[in-house]
TrEMBL record:
Keywords: Apoplast, Secreted, Signal. It comes from Brassica rapa subsp. trilocularis. Its main location: secreted. This is Dirigent protein. The keyword Secreted applies. The gene is A04p003390.1_BraROA.
Amino acid sequence: MARHVLLALFSALLLATAITTSEAFSRTVKAPYQAHKPKKLTHLHFYFHDIVSGAKPTTAIVAVGPATNTSASAFGMVVVIDDPLTVGPEITSEEVGRAQGMYASADQKSFGLFVAFNLMFTKGEFAGSTASLYGRNPVMSKVREMPIIAGTGAFRFGRGYAQARTFTFNTTSGNAVVEYNVYIWH
Ligand SMILES: *[C@@H]1O[C@H](CO)[C@@H](O)[C@H](O)[C@H]1NC(C)=O
Ligand SMILES: *[C@@H]1O[C@H](CO)[C@@H](O)[C@H](O)[C@H]1NC(C)=O
């Protein structure tokens, strides 16, 4: 019995110490919302058009680093994009949204992009909703997987992933068409 009392006292002391320590730096507060439980998984399929040259480019190189020009992977280049998303691979196919944001060449050895953009949907059930894509895109790989970290509208509390596959790449113009399969729990 005495041992139990001692143990209880000891735990209470530990607890008190823990609370004092944690309160100094952080504390847990009552969550303002109930925990959100995803209800459905949505699969989106579309083509992303990265138009870097021609009469109407949808990308702009906004910065380069001191070594970008001599780097085989264009390290340090930052590009802002407003790329169309279409149902089919042709640019004339129905536009369902835009990919707005940026990518940066962030790998010194191979061609690897840091990407951060919003998929802004403009057609159908998801018109007005967005999904935020953030991750690493090793563009030379056959399939590149990137996280969907959040969303708005229909995709509020959204989480998921995107898989990108180059559909066509024109080595003369630098323009690319990329097939996207996106899965979002929301
Ligand atoms: C890189 O090349 C471009 C175009 O050839 C040139 O305008 C720019 O000044 C160069 N930048 C650096 C940092 O050398
Ligand atoms: C590739 O781009 C060049 C330059 O814009 C263009 O003349 C050519 O038709 C394009 N090739 C294909 C297969 O689209």
